[in-house]
Amino acid sequence: MAVRLPPTKLSSVLLASALLVASPWVAALEFRSVSVPKAVLYDAPSAQAHKLYVVGQGYPLEVLVNLGDWIKVRDQQGSLNWVEARQLSEKRTVVIKVDEVELRQAADNQSPVQARLTRHLVLEVLEPNNSGWVKVRHRDGVTGFVPATAVWGI
Predict the structure, then answer these.
(1) Rounded to 5 degrees, what angle do the CA atoms 148, 150, 152 make?
(2) What is an example of a Pfam family matching this protein (predicted)?
(3) pLDDT on residue 29
(4) Which of 58, 119, 153, 117 is nearest to 145 (CA)?
(5) 37 shares a domain with 84
(6) Measured between alpha carbons, how far is 76 from 29 in angstroms, rounded to an integer?
(7) Do 102 and 61 reside in the same domain of the chain?
(8) 10 Å Cβ neighbour count for 42?
(9) N or C terminus: which one in the chain shows less Cβ crowding within 10 Å?
(10) Rounded distance, CA 104 to CA 96, Å?
(11) How far apart are CA 110 and CA 17, in angstroms?
């Protein structure tokens, strides 16, 4: 017969902490961007592995595994690949994932439109997701806000 002890404050805190650490929702996603004009994505962590794709400078990639010289990444389409760590930067970027989105002056649907942006365009992140909006900069220098739902990489 098992004896059940009443929960203590410490055991409750430990249980809650363990659940938080184990929860996939708590883990923050890590993204990096391509720092070279063209980065090759491979099917294994080796330059002798099969070359799968080439991605351009600034393209965001989600970091899944870091082996030091090689990083396993996921791209916008969900493909899992390996890339040399030296070809990535800590600079945060996003890519437009909808056909067209309006770049607004402020984080508000009623704010004036700065530009209309199209699918696959890479933007630099100036401020991460803030109440559903991301402050970004276009390569031509125009800054503004786009809905977080319209971009991938955050």
Answers:
(1) 75
(2) SH3_4
(3) 86
(4) 117
(5) yes
(6) 13
(7) no
(8) 19
(9) N
(10) 14
(11) 42
Predicted pLDDT at 130: 77
Please report, for the domain that includes residue 71, its CATH number: 2.30.30.40
- Looking up tokens 């720092």, which residue turns up? 35
β 122-130/93-96 pair status: antiparallel
Same structural domain, 111 and 77: no
Which residues share a beta bridge with 71? Answer: 66, 83
Whether 121 contacts 115, CB under 8 Å: no
CA distance 80 to 113: 36
Cβ neighbours for 45, distance < 8 A, ≥ 6 positions apart:
67, 69, 70, 72, 82
The residue range of the domain holding 58 is 30-89
